[in-house]
């Protein structure tokens, strides 16, 4: 499983990229709004930082508007992936953009049928939202597992991005259940690195070393 970072913050993207684990970036309108910068300028900056997929979301609700926005976003850099919501208009958009060889990430996926439809419309990625399902008492991981099994059984190449990740265990379970990618907030990426026994071990090694030197 690969890692994307779920942020529009350039400092976080640079730090994650320096770790050598970053295969892409996902943004959404809420994440961009936190940054108080021009959306297009920020996308330009992100695509200059990393060569992997950078998801940029459309905000129109009709296919015509989404397709126009998608073409404008894709013109920013070759590694832009256009993020499209899972609606009837969104599916038409995915079909139109994929006919133009523009990559798409269908977002706000909450069940396997939505993922299957998005894939058949030509989506490069589907993003099931784990945390938001868990928040309302559903099991987000079962949705990931079902999508992974269906895609595998039917030879579908669309990649599954485990999104709306709330804690490190979501990442482990998404990998075990067949997600190709996890898009992880920077705070959770840092949590994944640390373990109290690692810290304790370093402390002990250093104190033993210092006793002898
Ligand atoms: C994914 O592409 C979305 O940006 C994201 O994971 C949404 O997560 P949230 O539920 O924490 O807003």
From TrEMBL:
Pathway the protein acts in: Carbohydrate degradation; pentose phosphate pathway; D-glyceraldehyde 3-phosphate and beta-D-fructose 6-phosphate from D-ribose 5-phosphate and D-xylulose 5-phosphate (non-oxidative stage): step 2/3
Protein's UniProt keywords contain Cytoplasm: yes
Domain of life of the source: Bacteria
Record: active site: 83
UniProt GO cellular component terms: cytoplasm
Signal peptide interval: none
Function: Transaldolase is important for the balance of metabolites in the pentose-phosphate pathway.
Name of protein: Probable transaldolase
Upper classification of the organism: Bacteria, Bacillati, Bacillota, Bacilli, Bacillales
């Amino acid at each position: 499983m690969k890692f994307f970072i779920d942020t529009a913050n350039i400092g976080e993207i640079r730090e994650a990229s320096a770790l050598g684990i970053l295969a892409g970036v996902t943004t959404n309108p809420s994440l961009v709004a936190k940054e108080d910068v021009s959306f297009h300028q920020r996308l330009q900056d992100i695509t200059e930082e990393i060569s992997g997929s950078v998801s940029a979301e459309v905000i129109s609700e009709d296919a015509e508007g989404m397709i126009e926005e998608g073409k404008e976003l894709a013109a920013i850099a070759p590694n832009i992936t256009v993020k499209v919501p899972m609606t009837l208009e969104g599916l038409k958009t995915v079909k139109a953009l994929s006919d133009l060889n523009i990559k798409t990430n269908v977002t706000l996926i909450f069940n396997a049928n939505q993922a299957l439809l998005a894939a058949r419309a030509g989506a490069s990625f589907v993003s099931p939202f784990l945390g938001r399902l868990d928040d309302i008492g559903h099991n987000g991981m079962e949705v990931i597992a079902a999508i992974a099994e269906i895609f595998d059984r039917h030879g579908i190449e669309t990649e599954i991005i485990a999104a709306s990740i709330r804690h490190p265990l979501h990442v482990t379970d998404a990998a075990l259940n067949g997600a190709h990618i996890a898009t992880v907030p920077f705070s959770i990426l840092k949590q994944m690195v640390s373990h109290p026994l690692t810290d304790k071990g370093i402390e002990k090694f250093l104190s033993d070393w210092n006793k002898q030197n």
